[in-house]
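Q: I'm building a small set of examples for a reading group on sequence design. Run inverse folding on the following structure and report the sequence directly after it, with nothing in between.
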């Protein structure tokens, strides 16, 4: 009889601890809803960032070549006009960063490091549009200039 009561008490204590942990997690993190994009529930859309001419620079600062990147910027749908009107500020912020960011890849420096350029655009976006407006940047083409 003692064994049965011990197992029953262990089971109830385990259920209580697990339930308490689940309750604490939900109260801290919030309920899980599919497709929840944070506090802002407006659907995202892509804005064409146009063609950006960027220098390919070696790690030591020497110029290798130029490359044209075609970019798409993911923003909330209600901010598309705002972002489109401020694209020149984004291009300026990108230009201020690309000449000092080594993006030349490959043995001869003729290949662009697309991930490095994407990081440059993500770093320049808050300067042009404010924090939290741009959620993703897609590089859709990279061609030599």
């Amino acid at each position: 009889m003692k064994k049965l009561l011990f197992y029953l008490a262990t089971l109830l204590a385990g259920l209580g601890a697990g339930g308490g942990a689940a309750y604490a997690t939900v109260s801290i993190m919030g309920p899980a809803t599919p497709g929840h994009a944070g506090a802002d529930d407006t659907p995202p859309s892509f804005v064409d960032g146009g063609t950006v001419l960027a220098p390919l620079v070696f790690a030591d600062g020497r110029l290798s070549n130029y490359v044209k990147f075609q970019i798409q910027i993911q923003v909330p749908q209600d901010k598309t006009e705002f972002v489109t009107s401020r694209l020149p500020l984004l291009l300026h912020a990108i230009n201020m960063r690309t000449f000092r960011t080594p993006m030349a890849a490959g043995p001869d420096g003729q290949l662009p490091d697309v991930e490095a350029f994407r990081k440059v655009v993500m770093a320049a976006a808050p300067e042009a549009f404010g924090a939290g407006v741009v959620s993703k940047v897609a590089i859709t083409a990279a061609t030599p200039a």
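The chain has a mean pLDDT of 87.
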